[in-house]
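TA notes, week 10

Several of you asked for a full example with nothing omitted. So below is the full record: structure tokens for the whole chain, then the designed sequence directly under it. When grading your own attempts, check the secondary structure regions first.
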């Protein structure tokens, strides 16, 4: 009896392991992204996440790992989806066009009524407790990587004569990043697209060669 029962348990376990998930991974991740975007990492509880994703905690752990791993996947989703305008902006033919598309893309995204206001990368880890310090560092590293990509783009612009030879690519990249994050904070506070566009024009008027 023991051997038979053991065999039956193994078969049942194997059947469960081979059974396809009853939810769509991409859709669940999109919903988790929305929760993190709206509430931040600390503010998004596991109950908030599982309710929005339509799954239970064991399913969340099985599909995504823990909350920290889910958040990192949500950050990837954000970069590849809603914030993909950043990668596209870097392909613009001139440095000024890069900046204009970055700032306009930020405002369009962060004031879109279909999205939570503001920027996930700015809001999600502003007030992390010590236990969540790895998340704060992860978000900071991603912001730094984004600024580095802009800096490299400006270095190419200087080499090609699109920016003055004495321009400082690092300072310009930091300036653009600072304006972008400032726009995000304003949008999170309720500023509209129409209210933020003049700030874009002012930033462009201050651009070298403007």
């Amino acid at each position: 009896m023991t051997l038979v029962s053991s065999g039956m348990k193994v078969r049942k376990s194997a059947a469960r392991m081979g059974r396809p998930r009853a939810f769509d991974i991409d859709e669940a991740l999109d919903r988790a992204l929305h929760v993190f975007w709206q509430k931040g990492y600390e503010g998004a509880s596991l109950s908030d996440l599982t309710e929005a994703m339509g799954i239970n905690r064991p399913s969340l752990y099985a599909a995504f790992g823990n909350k920290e791993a889910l958040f990192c996947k949500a950050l990837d989703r954000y970069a590849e989806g809603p914030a993909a305008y950043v990668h596209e902006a870097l392909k613009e033919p001139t440095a000024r066009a890069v900046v204009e598309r970055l700032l306009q893309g930020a405002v369009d995204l962060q004031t879109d009524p279909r999205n939570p206001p503001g920027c996930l990368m700015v809001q999600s880890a502003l007030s992390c407790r010590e236990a969540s310090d790895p998340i704060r560092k992860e978000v900071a590293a991603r912001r730094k990587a984004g600024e580095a990509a802009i800096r490299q783009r400006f270095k190419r612009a200087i080499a090609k004569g699109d920016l003055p030879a004495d321009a400082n690519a690092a300072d310009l990249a930091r300036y653009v990043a600072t304006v972008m994050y400032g726009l995000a904070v304003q949008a999170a506070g309720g500023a509209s697209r129409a209210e933020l566009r003049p700030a874009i024009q002012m930033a462009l008027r201050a651009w070298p060669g403007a």
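The chain has two domains: 24-81, 82-205. Use that as a sanity check on your answer.
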